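Might you be able to consider the sequence and fold that I enclose below?
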Amino acid sequence: MKDYDKYQLREIILEKLKELGADCAGIADINALMNSPSEQLFPNMKDHTRDHFADEITTGLPHGKVFWEPDARSVIVFAVAHPEDRPEMDWWCGEIDPPGNKKLLKISRELKKYLSALDPDIHIYSKRYHVERGGIYLKDAAYQAGLGCIGYNNLCVTPAFGPRVRLRAMTINVSLPPTGPIAFDPCRTCDRPCITNCPQNAFSEVIYTREETGLTHLPARNGNYYRASCNNQMLKNEETAAEGLMPEVCDHTEKIIKYCRNCELSCPVGKSKK
């Protein structure tokens, strides 16, 4: 591998991501993510509804455990903004990836291609979305990379776009200086409309406690996010999805699933940003 200045290489990567279309990006120390809060919490989860991916584990690891490439040293995390006036970015046309996911995947491919040409000894690994298929816990990674904080809505809240972003991650075999966490916490003084506007009342009661889990980082901070309730809304969205056509995704009609985003859209952070 070439003798890079690690700060210089970090800036090269972050600038390239912006050039490729990422709206925010950062670097996380892989040691800060191994056995992350989400991974520690997983065995204590009250309900694993929709974890049908457990039947399709490709990592050879127990359900909920993250696979890390043996030579991975840092995690590259990036996001694309998902503004309220672009809802179709996350509309699912049957089983076909929505436009937002396609954009994230394209950025991953192009960055990998660019770094491989820069130095063949740089190994970069695109991480899948689902942990069971080789992904990582993206919100934990985004926090450690300095993209934002984990809000009371249990989402990554960024300074520029609030929680209205879509995340992706890659690992690299170079120890790069991390860019986070950062001192950013707009939720501390917020009246939390994200919680009151949930159609399934997914934040209505404490599900996890520090005493029970041994963790200080709890879902939605106070341990009051119940994943099963959120999943009920997703199932409802799927059941009521209407047939339609999305020419930018496919050339035939499919059920177009529009998942609930109330907790995202209710958040006031970044509302003035485009």
The longest helix spans residues 99-118. The chain has one domain: 6-265. The beta strands are 24-29, 74-81, 91-93, 124-126, 149-150, 156-157, 165-172, 242-244, 254-258. The longest strand covers residues 74-81.
